Amino acid sequence: MRKSIVTDYDNICFFCGRPAECEHHLIFGRGRRKLAEEDGLKVPSCNNCHNMGQIIGRIHDNQMAERLSKMLGQAIYEGKIGSREDFRTRYGKSYL
User: Fold this and answer.
1) Which residues is 22 bridged to in the sheet?
2) Which stretch of DSSP H or E encloses residue 25?
3) Rounded (5°) CA angle 54-58-64
């Protein structure tokens, strides 16, 4: 399992600052979660912010938050790993 390349604070929820209980992969769906794991495109999250809180305040099942998550993942990939074309080739599309 690769460490996050997004933050050094793996015990603090990336979204709200509470203690982290899980990880959120910034790119997910259609087999992309495994790629995000390999690339370190993940952030620590509390269960509320990840998938157990109210829909408006969590990442999963919130269309806007899911889209922003993928955009952030791509922006970090392009800033730290490779080009936009590299991202398209690896993840099958561009979110930016």
Assistant:
1) 45
2) strand 22-25
3) 115
DSSP state of 8: S
- Compute the distance between CA of residue 78 and CA of residue 86 in angstroms, rounded to an integer: 8
- The ranges assigned to domains in the chain are 22-87
**Residue-wise pLDDT tens digits, 51-67:** 998 988 999 999 999 99
Q: Could you identify the residue written with the tokens 């998938």?
A: 51
Tokens of 80: 């730290």
Q: The tokens of 89 are what? A: 């080739």
* Interatomic CA distance for residues 90 and 68, integer angstroms: 19
- What does pTM read for this prediction? 0.91
Tell me the CA distances in angstroms from 8 to 5, 13, 40, 76, one per residue in order.
8, 11, 11, 14
